[in-house]
Amino acid sequence: SAVISQKPSRDICQRGTSLTIQCQVDSQVTMMFWYRQQPGQSLTLIATANQGSEATYESGFVIDKFPISRPNLTFSTLTVSNMSPEDSSIYLCSVDGTVAEAFFGQGTRLTVV
Amino acid sequence: DAKTTQPPSMDCAEGRAANLPCNHSTISGNEYVYWYRQIHSQGPQYIIHGLKNNETNEMASLIITEDRKSSTLILPHATLRDTAVYYCIVNSDYKLSFGAGTTVTVRA
């Protein structure tokens, strides 16, 4: 199994500002994933982050709004840029396990006011 | 486009088996069936996955029909801590596409 730590666990931010969310894994992993869960909704994949290459974004998500870094095999960051109240969501980091399962962090609960 | 169909909610009595159905009639031959659950305010948790055969682990059993168009997740002895949203997902790669899931409420 993999243990994933996300920081911050929650934050309240002013509109127009940016927030960077950190994801730390206790073991080296090839792929890391970022999801968004809007209030009362299911999870939506934002992007896949591989070390040493640009992140791959899903339809509806762009790098300018959600820049991602992946400097090594145990760490990634997601930035939510120029925030608006519509960005209020839970943002989750995930990694692949060794038996096809995925492991998730506890999420970052973001409120934009 | 949704690949799976699950009932929106179901109740279960504590100590009884919970049977969660999932329809995936358009599943491809190389796609696996995965089950995850999300307890309130936590990240999703992997439960089990399978391709063709029935699978069992310490958490649950997965029964896949012979035509693979549907499956059932069985929680053998539900406890209050099993109250969660359960997601049935079919995929063949690393991307997980979460549907609305089934909200399972275990009642004492």
Summarize the structure.
Chain A has 113 residues and is mostly beta strands. Chain A has strands at residues 4-7, 10-13, 19-25, 31-37, 43-50, 56-57, 68-72, 75-80, 89-96, 102-104, 108-112. Chain A is globular.
Task: Describe this structure as you would to a colleague.
The complex is a heterodimer of chains A (113) and B (108). Chain A is mostly beta strands and 113 residues long. Chain A contains no helices and eleven strands. In chain A, the strands form two sheets. In chain A, strands 2, 4, 5, 6, 9, 10 and 11 form a seven-stranded mixed sheet that branches. Chain A starts with a strand and ends with a strand. The model of chain A has no long low-confidence stretch (mean pLDDT 94). In chain B, the strands form two sheets. Chain B has a five-stranded mixed sheet, with no helix packed on it. Chain B is an all-beta fold and 108 residues long. Chain B is globular, with a radius of gyration of 13 Å. Chain B has strands at 9-13, 18-23, 32-38, 45-50, 55-56, 61-64, 70-75, 84-91, 102-107.
Topology, pairings included?
The complex is a heterodimer of chains A (113) and B (108).
Chain A: E1 4-7, E2 10-13, E3 19-25, E4 31-37, E5 43-50, E6 56-57, E7 68-72, E8 75-80, E9 89-96, E10 102-104, E11 108-112
Chain B: E1 9-13, E2 18-23, E3 32-38, E4 45-50, E5 55-56, E6 61-64, E7 70-75, E8 84-91, E9 102-107
Parallel strand pairs in B: 1-9
Antiparallel strand pairs in B: 2-7, 3-4, 3-8, 5-6, 6-7, 8-9
Uncertain stretches of 5 or more adjacent residues of chain A:
none
Give the radius of gyration of chain B: 13 Å
For the biggest β-sheet of chain B, the strand order reads 1-9-8-3-4
Question: Which two chains form the greatest contact, residue counts included?
Answer: A-B, 20 and 18 residues
The quaternary organization reads as heterodimer
Q: pLDDT average of chain B, as an integer?
A: 93
Report the C-alpha radius of gyration of chain A, rounded. 13 Å
Indicate the proportion of strand residues of chain A.
over 45%
What is the strand tally of chain B? 9
Head-to-tail CA distance between termini of chain B: 37 Å
Please indicate the percent range of residues of chain B in DSSP E strands (runs of 2 or more): over 45%
How helical, in percent, are the residues of chain B?
under 10%
- Described by the principal axes of the CA atoms, the overall outline of chain B is globular
Determine the structural class of chain B based on helices, strands and strand pairing: mainly beta
Can you write the helix and strand succession of chain B as a string? EEEEEEEEE
Q: What average pLDDT do the residues of chain A reach?
A: 94
Shape of chain A: globular
Order of helices and strands of chain A: EEEEEEEEEEE
| Through-space gap between termini of chain A | 37 Å
